[in-house]
């Protein structure tokens, strides 16, 4: 039996494209691997406290808590970091659903990553998750392809590829939809058809990735 860690980051529950793409990937994964277990962490609906990483970072630098309240905060932060790190280390695959907010990743995704990177195994090794599969389902409200006015403004995708792929050492597969705000944004009406096309292609890609990852895990476990 294998485990898929699904991490959602959208602050929306209904209408979220990144969540919908992750649903497609998860459904395909489950169809191929019905005995698999899905562990969920919803950063969008249940954000990690922004105070956790500073408390732990100061402690790692040797700064002692000055008050009982700071000590309590440090204890809670350590427990939380241990929890999210164990989730990732115990997962056989990662499904990470992230929307583009303000041209980058949101604060709660960055907090999740920062807590994970406090574990020296991810930075200096030996890396316990090296080579495991990861599916990224990404949603971008606008258009960021070469030739578009905002080409180069997507500061999330390259960052996630660097962290998830190069630092965590996971084998990344990406399903990304663009122009997702076209159906609900005045002035973007002429882009609605392109938006639907991009989303449809991203769902197909997410399903494809879900199938491939599931088959890889089943074969490995056999």
Written overview of the protein:
This protein has a five-stranded parallel beta sheet. Helices cover 47% and strands 15% of the residues. The chain contains seven helices and five strands; from the N terminus they run βαβααβααβαβα. Helix 1 runs parallel beside helix 7 (192-221) and helix 2 (52-60) crosses helix 3 (68-90). With 222 residues, it is α/β, with parallel strands linked by helices.
**How would you sum up the major sheet?**
5 strands, parallel
DSSP summary, beta strand count: 5
- Count helical runs: 7
Protein structure class: alpha/beta
Unreliably modeled segments: none
Shape: globular
Strand and helix layout:
Elements: E1 3-8, H1 17-32, E2 37-42, H2 52-60, H3 68-90, E3 93-99, H4 107-116, H5 120-124, E4 133-139, H6 157-167, E5 171-177, H7 192-221
Parallel strand pairs: 1-2, 1-3, 3-4, 4-5
What structural keywords apply?
single chain; 222 residues; alpha/beta
């Amino acid at each position: 039996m294998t485990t898929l860690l699904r991490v959602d980051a959208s602050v929306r529950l209904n209408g979220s494209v990144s969540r919908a793409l992750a649903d497609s990937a998860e459904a395909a994964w489950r169809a191929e691997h019905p005995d698999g277990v899905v562990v969920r962490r919803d950063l969008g609906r249940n954000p990690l406290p922004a105070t956790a990483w500073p408390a732990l970072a100061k402690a790692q630098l040797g700064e002692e808590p000055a008050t009982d309240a700071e000590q309590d905060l440090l204890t809670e932060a350590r427990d939380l970091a241990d929890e999210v790190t164990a989730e990732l280390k115990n997962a056989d695959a990662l499904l990470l659903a992230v929307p583009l907010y303000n041209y980058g990743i949101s604060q709660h995704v960055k907090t999740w990553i920062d807590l994970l990177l406090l574990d020296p195994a991810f930075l200096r090794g030996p890396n316990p998750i090296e080579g495991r599969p990861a599916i990224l389902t990404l949603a971008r409200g606008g258009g960021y392809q070469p030739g578009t006015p905002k080409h180069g403004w997507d500061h999330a995708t390259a960052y996630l590829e660097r962290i998830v792929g190069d630092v965590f050492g996971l084998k990344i597969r990406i399903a990304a939809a663009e122009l997702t705000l076209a159906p609900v944004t005045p002035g973007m009406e002429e882009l609605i058809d392109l938006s639907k096309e991009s989303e449809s292609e991203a769902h197909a890609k997410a399903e494809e990735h879900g199938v491939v990852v599931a088959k890889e895990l089943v074969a490995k476990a056999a």
